[in-house]
Structure formats: C-alpha cells, structure tokens
Amino acid sequence: MIQTEQFLKEETWRYFWHPVCTLKELRDANTDGRGNRKFVQLLGEELVVAETSNGVIALNDRCPHRSASLSLGWVEDDCIRCAYHGWKYNSDGQCVEIPAAPDLPIPPNALTKKYDVQVMYNLVWVRLEQGVDIPIPDFPDYDDPEMKLVYYPTYEWKTSAARRLENFVDLQHFAWVHDGTLGDRNFPEYPVPQVDQSQGQLRWLYRPYENTRTDGANQNVVERSEYVITMPFNVQLSIYSTNSNRTGLWMISSPMDSGNCRNFTYISRNHFDDEDQVHIDFDTKVYQEDLPVIESQKPREIPNPTQEISIPQDKVLIFYRRWLKEMSNASEKGHEELQVAWSKERCETKAANNDKNVN
User: Fold this and answer.
1) What share of the chain is helix, strand, coil (3-state, %, to 5)?
2) 7 with 359: CB under 8 angstroms?
3) Are residues 117 and 146 in the same domain?
C-alpha cells in the first residue's frame, strides 16, 4: 500500500457549506413521533440536526454530562432532550434544564457546540467554522420553470469527496468503465478542453468526437456538455443534445470524513414526456459501474503529486487539484488568505506551464 502524508488539509473544508441530509431525510427520521432529528457526520464531526419551530439547528452530538449521543434524544420545546439523563439543550447548544437537580445553577460549561445551518434546495447545509464568506453553490435549474427536477436518492461511497468529484468530471474513463453506457471503447480519444477559473468555479466545454457519446437515459447524441465545478466538492453538468434536449446533473459530495463521502444529486431536464424513474435507473447503472473502481483507489484521499502520473488529458483534474492545494495552504495563513485563494482567477496559458507540478 502507498504510504502517504496528508496532501490536503481537511480542516480547510470546515469553512465551506456542505449538505448533510435532505429535509425529507430529516423528517423521515422521526419514526417515533418525538420530533425531527437525525445523526449526521461531517469532516469527522458527529452532529445532530433537528427541526424546531424556528428552523433547523445543528449541534455537536455529544452531551457534555456523560457523553451520550443527543441524536438518541428528542425535540421538546424547540430544544433537544438527552435520552440518558434528560438534560435539555436549546438551539444555541446551552443546557437549560437538569431534571435531577432543578434548583442547582446550571454549570456555564454545560453546553455543546452549535454550527451554522441553512436549508436551501431542500437540502440541510452545515458550516463548521465561520470567518470566510463563501456562499452555498448556485443551482439555477432549481427555480427554472422550463426544467423538471427529480432528486436522486442520497448515497455514500468509501472514498473522499474530492475523489468522488474527480470521478464525475473525468471523461477519459467513459470508454472503459461505461462502455455502451456513456462511452465506446472503439473511441477512447478525449479532447483536451480549455478551462476557465474564477470566483470559486472551474468551467469548461466538452464537445465529444462524433457519435462517441449519448445523453444517457434517452440515448440522444450529445452536441456539447458544459461543466462547472464550484469549489470544493460541487459540480453542475448541462448536457445539450442534437435534438434540443437539455439534461442536467447537479452533484455535491459531502465529506463525512477524509475517506468517506455522502452524495446528493438532482437530475433536471427540459423534456417532460418521459418517466423520472428512467433517469434514476440510468444513473444507478452508471454509479454501479463506477463504484468498484472508485472504492479500489488507494489512498482514498488525493495523494501527493509524486504518487500518481498525469497526462495532458488530465488537465481538468490538474487544475482542480492545484486549486484545492492552494486553498489548503492558504487556510493555514488565515481567513483572508483562504478567501483570496477561493476567489482566484487563473490565466490558462500561464497555468499550463506549471501543469507538471501538481497532479
């Protein structure tokens, strides 16, 4: 097995918003009628998310009394009641009641950490650390009346969020992993795209060689595909077919920890005459083809550049890894430096001269 030191500092991603569950998953977790609350993991942290009358909250899952999981408790009076000894915590994580000692002043350190939460696109987003002004990624198709949406069921993979995103945008593997699904082994060539980088996004246009790619479930010939990565782990794909159909995929990989991710996907389309399940089934087939290959990658995290080999066709991944590394390094210097690194624009011609330095 490859021995590697940590190339990317996982602490960097604590300043970004990540989805931890869908709003439906949170509500479906209420199987006992004791309130909407759910255990989730993000960047190695164990959290409980709960829905109160004032909105969704996120707290560290540990009760500081005797370290029981708060997610085993229930929602009561817009607070979370611990199932072990009944200590009750408000939306700020402060203990407000100790049933065994109602007259005892509550210790000031009887609190559990609170995290920032937003609900957007019917996803529950959490940010573990403040200090950097980086918004939740845009999803234009969500409010577009010309696009029909279907949510693909949430799934977990035994790989890092960065590896999962790379798999999504690495078109070289289509001919081999997805022969007959997305690609054709008789046409393995892959044109090198031009990549634009600015304001937290990598953008590029892919035009497949003639008759070498279809749009998926409908098997229409693809005219072009437009990709947008919003750093660090979000990608928007828009597929334009020669018959004027447009299909979109919006995927966010959420880092549960350094080697495991939880993935959230919306499928959008401008044609309404087919069934949602057709698109879900097609994506399931694609993901099943990917899964054994991706989970075989070692290490699960992005390694040091010396431990993998790149060619010019890896340009998108080279740009992506370089940017992740720049943000990782900047986060050690402070919030302002990370903000600048995230906002950085890059001239491709100049960057190409340094491609050999970062895989």
Assistant:
1) 25, 30, 40
2) no
3) no
Written as tens digits, the pLDDT of the chain (359 aa) is 555 568 999 999 999 999 999 999 999 999 999 999 999 999 999 999 999 999 999 999 999 999 999 999 999 999 999 999 999 999 999 999 999 999 999 999 999 999 999 999 999 999 999 999 999 999 999 999 999 999 999 999 999 999 999 999 999 999 999 998 888 898 888 889 999 999 899 999 988 765 556 555 555 677 889 999 999 999 999 999 888 889 999 999 999 999 999 999 999 999 988 899 999 999 999 999 999 999 999 999 999 999 999 999 999 999 999 999 999 999 999 999 999 999 988 755 444 444 444 44
Task: Using the 3D structure, point to which of 84, 104, 127 is the last residue of a domain.
Answer: 127
Residue length, the chain?
Answer: 359
Identify the domain containing residue 64 by its residue range: 17-127
What is the DSSP secondary-structure string of 287-325? Answer: HHHHHHHHTT-SSSS---GGGS---GGGHHHHHHHHHHH
C-alpha angle 328-174-223 in degrees, rounded to nearest 5: 100
Given 101, 127, 153, the domain boundary residue is 127
CA distance 9 to 325: 8
User: Hey, is 76 helix, strand or coil?
Assistant: strand
Please give the structure tokens belonging to residue 254. 């959420």
Nearest to 132 by CA among 196, 200, 197: 200
Give 346's DSSP letter: B
Residues 158, 225: one domain? yes
State how many domains the chain has: 2
